[in-house]
Design goal:
The protein is of the alpha+beta class and about 375 residues long. It has helices at about 10-15, 105-115, 115-125, 170-180, 185-195, 235-240, 250-255, 280-295, 305-310, 315-325; strands spanning about 25-30, 35-40, 50-55, 60-65, 75, 80-85, 135-140, 145-150, 155-160, 165-170, 205-210, 215-220, 230, 240-245, 260, 330-340, 340-350, 355-360, 370-380. The strands form 3 sheets. The chain has a 9-stranded antiparallel β-sheet. Strands 10-1-2-11-12-13 form a 6-stranded antiparallel β-sheet. A 4-stranded antiparallel β-sheet has the order 16-17-18-19. A hairpin with a 6-residue loop joins strand 4 (about 60-65) and strand 5. It starts with 8 loop residues before the first helix and ends in a 9-residue tail after the last strand. The model is unreliable at about 1-15 (pLDDT under 50).
Length: about 375
């Protein structure tokens, strides 16, 4: 996107959990022989993705679902543990002083390190998740056990169960259909998801069914039953890290897998150590453009004419997004290359609450022809939704 990618993670992540009413419908279908985790994702962003991150030293392989900001909303791991969130709540939440913050997305850290519902409960009791103030999570494992975790009166509320259940936007419809003793089949899961679709501004963008025992993934990328795409988690992880754009998934399945984008890779910031800055005046100038943007006073003379057309009308939105990040701290060069008359610069930009990986392209007049957030990492414990 032209508008700085709206600076990536902060606005997109905050917005999904800030709907006026609960968005998304998630539920578990289970009996003594099968456990299915079902989810419908409701939001305004049509740029949906599914990506696969193989296991490594000390962490499980995972499939994640979400949007083009690379911040997983839910997923399934190689141990048969799955989760997703429902936003639209408003609760007081104060993590205890003994809680230890994790790096990056707590949902991803939980899935890559936990094998059971009990593990997940212990994880969230140890590690603060700021978004419990506006969302609740459902976690289920291959045994059919599940837990709904949310906040109330400043404390986490933990509700465990071992039978079919769920909640969210389509809650009333869901409860009626579960009362009819729906068997844990993919067909029944898809039927319930279809009945719980949201329309309008926050229409359902995709639905998924995870078989927690087999690792099969049934994806409905356009939320229609006839659009089912089937994966197996183990088989996909064996292909290495890769992703699919859900709206184009049919075409992409016939092509060579797309390698993970920067913002999908685990701890991607570590891949960009500082390099010598031989053009400090360029860095100083680009830093000034961020200062100007935070003041809502961007200058047309700093940008290529065509690029400025897209920026000029969005200054207030850009300013609001940047302010959610907290104070601007530092800007460090991590990559530089030339392509003809254009020069590419990549910076690690530190704010109080988030670290951004920003890419700039300067034209032959030293004007910014492109600036894009390629990834964002929330600072441990930072809450981007309170500003």
């Amino acid at each position: 996107m032209i508008l700085w990618m709206r600076f990536g993670l902060p606005l997109a992540f905050f917005s999904v959990f800030s709907q006026p009413l609960p968005g998304c419908t998630i539920f578990v279908l289970t009996d003594t022989s099968r456990a299915l985790f079902c989810n419908s994702e409701d939001w305004s962003n049509p740029k949906t993705r599914i990506w696969f991150v193989p296991a490594g030293d000390g962490y499980y392989g995972c499939a994640y679902v979400g949007y083009d900001d690379g911040w997983a909303r839910g997923g399934l791991n190689s141990e048969g543990l799955a989760c997703d969130w429902v936003g639209g709540f408003n609760a007081e939440w104060k993590p205890g002083p003994s809680n230890r913050c994790v790096r990056g997305n707590p949902t991803e850290r939980m899935l890559e390190s936990c094998a059971t519902v009990q593990d997940a409960i212990a994880f969230f009791l140890r590690h603060p998740e700021p978004d419990f103030s506006r969302a609740r999570i459902l976690v289920a494992d291959r045994t059919g056990a599940s837990v709904i975790i949310g906040a109330k009166d400043g404390k986490l509320q933990i509700a465990k169960a071992s039978q079919s259940r769920g909640f969210g936007f389509g809650g009333q419809t869901l409860m009626k259909m579960l009362a009819n003793s729906a068997e844990p089949t993919v067909a029944n899961g898809a039927t319930i998801l279809r009945a719980c679709l949201q329309q309008g501004q926050f229409a359902t963008k995709y639905s998924n069914v995870f078989d927690l025992q087999s690792g099969d993934i049934f994806l409905f990328p356009l939320s229609r039953q006839e659009d089912e795409v089937r994966f197996n988690l183990t088989a996909e992880l064996e292909r290495g890290g890769h992703y699919y754009d859900m709206p184009q998934i049919r075409q992409q399945l016939a092509q060579t897998p797309q390698p993970l984008l920067i913002n999908m890779r685990r701890f991607f910031m570590d891949e960009f150590p500082p390099i010598p800055d031989e053009e400090p005046d360029v860095t100083k100038h680009l830093r000034a453009t961020i200062d100007d943007a935070m003041q809502g006073a961007m200058r047309s003379g700093d940008y290529a004419a065509e690029f400025w057309k897209g920026l000029s009308s969005g200054q207030k939105a850009i300013q609001a997004d940047l302010k959610r990040n907290g104070d601007f701290v530092s800007m460090t060069l991590v990559d530089h290359s030339n392509e003809g008359n254009r020069r590419n610069y990549r910076y690690r930009v530190e704010f109080e609450k988030v670290t951004l990986l920003l890419r700039y392209v300067l034209n032959e007049q030293d004007r910014v022809a492109l600036m894009r957030s390629e990834g964002a990492e929330r600072k441990p414990g930072a809450d981007l939704g309170g500003d």
